[in-house]
Amino acid sequence: MTVEANDLARTVLATRPIVPAKDFMTSKQFYSDLGFQSKMLTDDLAEMSLGACSFVLQNYYVRDWADNFVIHLYVSDLRPWWDRIVAAGLARRYGVKTGAPHRADWGATVAQMIDPAGVLWWLHEVQTALPAG
Asked: Which of 7, 32, 105, 123 has a Cα at 20 to 30 A from 87?
């Protein structure tokens, strides 16, 4: 019996990346300050959720991995995200880098944030629905 890709697609519920943490408690607090809710799964894993977005934060760190990890988050409105990043003082409090909203070369409005472990987040404002597939 051959399983078709469409059959597999109907079974997918979510994608949850597993994000490294150099200092688990600091990263957990960082994401909580950003607005994510944490739910401990084990002593070394926390589910971080905000609306339809979730990921697993793990108490594990490899610098080369973290420094090359990128999460591209599509949002309908970038302004409240940037306002939250600034109001929470994430750059100052956690010593992380942020990049203010700007128009990227390809025309999208984007902002960047690097978490305490070095994970890069691209916040991408989407003006229209994402293309299928």
From this structure: 105
Structural domains of the chain sorted by starting position, each given as residue range(s) with its CATH number in brackets:
15-125 (3.10.180.10)
Q: Give the chain's radius of gyration (CA, Å).
A: 16
Residue whose entry in the numeric block shows the structure tokens 């600091």: 26
* Predicted TM-score of the model (pTM): 0.88
The tens digit of pLDDT for each residue in 25-63 reads 999 999 999 999 999 999 999 999 999 899 999 999 999
Report the C-alpha gap between 52 and 102 in whole angstroms: 25
Q: Which residues of 107-129 are buried (b: 16+ CB within 10 A; e: fewer)?
A: eebbbebbbbbbbbbbbbbeeee
